[in-house]
Amino acid sequence: MSTSNQMHRPDFGVWEKYFDANLERQARLDARIPWATPSHLPPADVVAIARSLQRFELGESGEGEGLRSKARRLNDAAYDRALVRFVAEEQKHSALFAGVLARFGAERLTSHWSDAVFVVLRRLLGLRTEVTLFLIAETTAMEYFGALGRSSDPVIEGVARRVLTDEVEHVRFQIDQLRAGFARTPQVGRMLAAGAAWVVAVGAATVLAVDHGAAMRALGLHPAVFWRRALAQFGRAVPEAFGLGPAAPFGPSVTLHEYAEAAAEGGQAPGR
Prior knowledge:
disordered C terminus; mainly alpha; 0% strand; Ribonucleotide Reductase, subunit A; 12 helices
């Protein structure tokens, strides 16, 4: 990357600091999950939710080497360090889901067709496309995680709320990278990229609604309602991510000072 191009990239050091600051809050929220509490969910609901979480556990367990390899071509050391921390948070989510599976006596998956398709798409295309796929995956899953967070099972509720607090900022992290990546792309190119992303998002939301429909129903979320809300979540991210509308300030949704206060209280950080 040339020095001229590097000057157009924002400082991802703020994200590196955010991920480091988030460790304390993660530890506090992890400690509040009542792992020893027995589950009183009906057996059919346990089976449906466990099958669903098997897919999510597998999807969040990757090492991120392909993503990091592409990112290194930017010669942006701060972004690379932030990316390492982002991947580590995703792996922690995988570990939390694995904990729920173990509690239910369910096995972890070693492969699944939906994860395989996602991996193939990521490996075939460039950094901006891979980040777009992460944005799609994370925005469309937010509504589902919200439903998990309303579960009557205290462990599922605690894990979901813990994961959701990270995912809110992960969406912002992907948006910021796409904003930087498309900064010098003409508007027509950004519009075409956004249109292609919409096509993939519709497919992703449909797969989630079908593949995880039984779990959604067990959680009181109708798949059709999920589908509509998931695409609405993605739609809110599109204008900012592709430079087609007003942009929020660069960086996480809260200042580090606000985040430290929220961590000390053991709760969620306030959003913008």
